[in-house]
Design a protein that fits this description.
372 residues; Rossmann fold; 2 domains; six-stranded parallel beta sheet; single chain; seven-stranded parallel beta sheet
Length: 372
């Protein structure tokens, strides 16, 4: 039995990208071979009420400047020794620091540090600290080849120490039907029955660059009267983005849907999926679009080109280029492109990102780390 402690800052919701992938991994690990522990720096209402897939450890680290946090780090290290943890896998900025330090103190031989973004949070001091912590890491795990190459360059990690496993999809949760929204869906959100719905699923944070999507929407609307747009997600940028809609004069064709737990149901009412981010590692939203059989228009960030083949199942444009994004959306709406590209998306999802395939890679990876 291989005991694995997954360390992450917190899980407030099961829908965010890294959190969703970690929860999928924990839920589907072969319990005959692996015993997972979910270790969070701070607990949450969702974890306390909804999560039951494995033992949860509340490490209790809220600030580096509180003596209690350092004491709790030592207690967590003792927990790792007591449970005979074989592998500690870390996620996010603080989870990475706490997890690596505690694992080193506990004498854990298998320390895996994940790279699931391309360091828009990196500062000079962070890089100096990572230079020290990275020496104690057994293997690094990226979720795209783009991020693997970025981490090797930005953090001066030997690229041979970095493995790549893409994000996973539960394909049976997504209905690969093209251009057939559920009955009543359009009326429910105030769109005409013949609308072509272009949507984006993202947290409303600056890095997601939703303003680029909205500016593209304004350009598409002038040429394609049937086009309608939805923004699925919430966050600190929402008020500003709603103001931008009014400024662009597109309030009547855009709907802000807020947070949604049932993403597959939302995607079933969309025709085209969009990603407008200025930085990503490997977008879960893109994978969900593929699973739902949606053509994709996305910015060239992270591993986008590892999922979207330009001109085959969508279009890839430069970050910030809303004119090219609008052009890509218009091209997809022409002729048979919606149906043809949608089928290509679903085939890509089945071929490369299905949950059984990705789980097998994870289990082989953990087996290898434990045997080193």
């Amino acid at each position: 039995m291989i005991n694995i402690a997954f360390v992450i800052d917190a899980i407030e919701s099961p829908t965010a990208g890294t959190e969703k992938q970690l929860l999928l991994l924990i839920r589907h690990l072969d319990r005959a071979r692996f015993r997972p522990y979910l270790c969070v720096l701070r607990s949450s209402q969702w974890l306390n009420k909804e999560f039951g897939d494995c033992e949860v450890v509340d490490i209790g680290v809220s600030s580096w400047f509180r003596p209690a946090s350092w004491l709790n780090l030592l207690r967590f290290s003792a927990f790792l020794r007591r449970k005979g943890i074989d592998i500690v896998q870390t996620h996010f900025v603080d989870g990475n620091k706490i997890g690596i330090l505690a694992a080193k103190l506990a004498g854990v031989k298998g320390i895996v540090s994940t790279r699931r973004n391309q360091g828009y949070w990196h500062s000079k001091n962070e890089l100096l600290l990572l230079d020290i912590l990275n020496r104690w890491v057994s293997r690094f795990l990226a979720n795209s080849d783009s991020t693997r190459r970025w981490a090797a360059k930005a953090e001066r990690i030997d690229i041979q120490r970095i493995d790549v496993i893409h994000n996973a999809l539960e394909l049976d949760r997504y209905q690969p039907v093209i251009c057939r929204p559920p009955a009543g869906y359009m009326a429910e959100i105030g769109f005409p029955a013949d609308a072509v719905v272009i949507g984006i699923v993202a947290n409303l944070r600056r890095v997601k660059a939703i303003d680029v999507f909205l500016r593209a929407a304004a350009m598409v609307t002038g040429h394609c009267p049937a086009a309608r747009f939805i923004v699925v997600g919430d966050g600190p940028e929402r008020a500003a983005l709603e103001g931008l809609c009014r400024e662009l004069g597109i309030g009547s064709v855009v709907r802000f849907m807020g947070s949604c737990l049932d993403i597959p149901a939302i995607l079933a009412g969309m025709d085209i999926g969009v990603l407008s981010s200025s930085s990503e590692s490997f977008s879960n939203s893109i994978l969900e679009y593929l699973a739902a059989g949606l053509p994709v228009v996305c910015t060239d960030v992270g591993g986008a080109r590892e999922a979207v083949e330009d001109g085959t199942n969508g279009y890839v444009v430069e970050p910030g280029d809303f004119a090219s994004m609008a052009d890509g959306i218009r091209k997809i709406m022409e002729g048979e492109n919606l149906t043809k590209m949608g089928r290509q998306s679903r085939e890509m999802a089945e071929r490369s990102f299905s949950l059984p395939c990705v789980m097998r890679l994870h289990e082989e990876f953990f087996q290898g780390v434990a045997l080193r």
